[in-house]
Automatic annotation (TrEMBL):
CDD domains: CbiX_SirB_N. Gene3D superfamilies: 3.30.1360.190, 3.30.70.2320, 3.40.50.1400. Pfam families: CbiX, DR2241, Fer4_23. Residues 398-476 form the DR2241 4Fe-4S iron-sulfur cluster binding domain. Residues 290-395 form the DR2241 stabilising domain. Signal peptide: none annotated. Transmembrane segments: none annotated. The lineage of its organism: Bacteria, Thermotogati, Deinococcota, Deinococci, Deinococcales. This is Cobalamin biosynthesis protein CbiX. Keywords: Lyase, Metal-binding. The keyword Ribosomal protein does not apply. NCBIfam families: PRK02395.1-3, PRK02395.1-4. It comes from Deinococcus carri.
Length: 491
């Protein structure tokens, strides 16, 4: 793997000469409902930034911001590698992500990935990290954490997957890893079991004979399945559970943590990136339009500027960000953070503790301040208002191209195909509820925005395309379910 001089991971100042740059983009599912869904992607991005092998590591999401439609705009380099942070191949990795990124590819991704030139950037798209052969080592590491003295004489391994009858790829990766573990010789027996397809995990007492059993969930993150469903289906009471009356004699089950939360996944991600089709040692150049946008924004920030609900004030080379309604409030009455990640974590929920999947909703909490260096300010702003600087500056230059609603609707697949049937009245019903809560102006609906915050109007932020939150709400409207657990489906 390439070693390189570590550079700062934030956006640069005005048009620095930064040849041979490389950007790494991690794509997660995200959630309109659950603020913890993006946590694993954030954690791996932080681990990979610490490695310093890429000039920047950027996160993007299907259900959060920056969206899949926005994320490439937020990258500094013309050399971009995109890793889908999923445990197996399937609908999202083969249909949704390539479509939303504009890759012009649908269906199975070849082992070396897919490479395209989009808007002057070379974009490489890889297989999901979960299918990489290196995940077998992560399974073994998790098993050894749960049972350090495991042995081929008396220990069985269960590789536990979710499974689904809708996509055979979901189980294929489980069987492949079970086979690799079987061939490794570390266990007396190895079984692949599933939650939602046969052979199901509840059958384990009949199929497993060894007296000691290690269960490793092949899941991307800790969640409802790993904390509730699996223990219930298996009859587990904790990390170690004894079963004295099983069909094959007394057995003890050791329950491991999911593979997707292991730090070694960062190595798997880096291997995938380096093996991607056309992966370049040289890297790319600085994206000029991106650099110009941030140079223009830093010029505003050095004078002090308000963007949306946030106030940015310069202080001797540092920048203080706070809610505009907290202007003048004593600093000792505010919670202070000094990193972009700290700002991100303080502003991902509203004052009622609810998740904010759309950052430009007028729900920015009060009571905080962030003090950031000029190098950290762009990443902090990227967390606070994802893609707003890039899209705002493009609109300021009259180069931002809106995507009309009918075009967005026609692009939808799966459970969202039904938004194509939405009448103009239904779309406007949703807009009156959803878009009225947002700072953005709907360019995609034909609304006009004469100036942006680059022109001195703090709340003037363009919206070039309907967001996934809006799309989910339109689907509920068409289904007649809005108001009764709206946007509750997380596919």
């Amino acid at each position: 793997m390439r070693e390189s001089v570590r550079r700062d991971n934030s956006a640069p100042g005005p048009l620095l000469d930064c040849p041979h740059m490389r950007s790494l983009v991690l794509i997660g599912h995200g959630s309109h409902l659950n603020g913890e869904s993006a946590g694993a992607v954030y954690r791996y991005a932080e681990l990979l930034r610490e490695r310093g092998l890429y000039d920047e590591v950027v996160e993007g999401y299907w259900k959060e911001e920056p969206s899949l439609r926005q994320v490439l705009k937020t990258t500094r380099s013309t050399d971009v590698t995109v890793i889908p942070m999923f445990i197996s191949e399937g609908y999202f990795t083969e249909t949704v992500i390539p479509r939303e990124l504009g890759l012009g590819h649908q269906g199975p991704v070849p082992p070396e990935g897919v490479a395209r030139v989009l808007g002057g950037k070379t974009v490489r798209y890889t297989l999901p990290y979960g299918v990489h052969p290196g995940m077998a080592e992560v399974i073994l590491a998790r098993a050894r954490e749960a049972l350090p003295d495991l042995s081929p004489q008396d220990t069985a391994l269960i590789v536990l997957g979710h499974g689904t009858t809708r996509n055979e790829n979901s189980s294929r990766v489980i069987y492949r890893n079970a086979e690799l573990m079987r061939d490794s010789g570390h266990f007396a027996e190895v079984h692949a079991l599933f939650l939602d397809e046969d052979p199901k995990v509840g059958t384990w007492p009949e199929v497993v004979r060894a007296p000691r059993v290690v269960v490793v969930p092949f899941f991307a993150s800790e969640g409802w399945h790993t904390l509730e469903t699996i223990p219930e289906d298996m009859g587990l009471t904790g990390e170690v559970t004894s079963f004295p009356d099983n069909p094959h004699g007394p057995q003890t089950v050791y329950y491991a943590r999911p593979v997707g939360t292991h730090s070694a996944v960062a190595d798997v991600i880096l291997h995938l990136a380096e093996e991607a089709r056309g992966a370049s040692e040289r890297g790319g150049d600085e994206d000029r339009s991106h650099a110009e946008a941030w140079a223009a924004f830093l010029t505003l920030a050095r004078r002090g500027v308000r963007v949306g609900e946030a106030l940015i004030t310069p202080h001797g080379g540092l920048y203080e960000l706070r809610h505009a309604l907290d202007e003048g409030r004593p600093t000792d009455s505010l919670t202070t953070v000094v990193t972009p990640e700290g700002l991100r974590d303080l502003t991902r929920r509203d004052e009622g503790g609810h998740h904010r999947p759309v950052h430009t909703f007028r729900t920015l909490p009060r009571g905080w301040r962030a003090v950031l260096s000029e190098a950290d300010l762009p990443r902090g702003m990227g967390y606070l208002y994802p893609a707003v600087v890039e899209e705002g500056y493009a609109h300021h230059l009259h180069t931002l191209r809106p995507t009309p609603w009918p075009t967005t609707a026609r692009r939808q697949t799966g459970i969202y195909t039904k938004v194509q049937r939405a009448t103009p009245e239904q779309v406007e019903n949703v807009a009156r509820d959803v878009c009225s809560r947002c700072l953005k102006t709907r360019l995609w609906a034909g609304e006009k925005l004469p100036a942006t915050f680059f022109g001195g109007v703090p709340g003037a932020i363009p919206c070039p395309e309907a967001c996934t939150y809006f799309i989910a709400e339109v689907r509920e409207e068409v289904s007649g379910k809005r108001g009764a657990g709206s946007h509750g489906h997380e596919d």
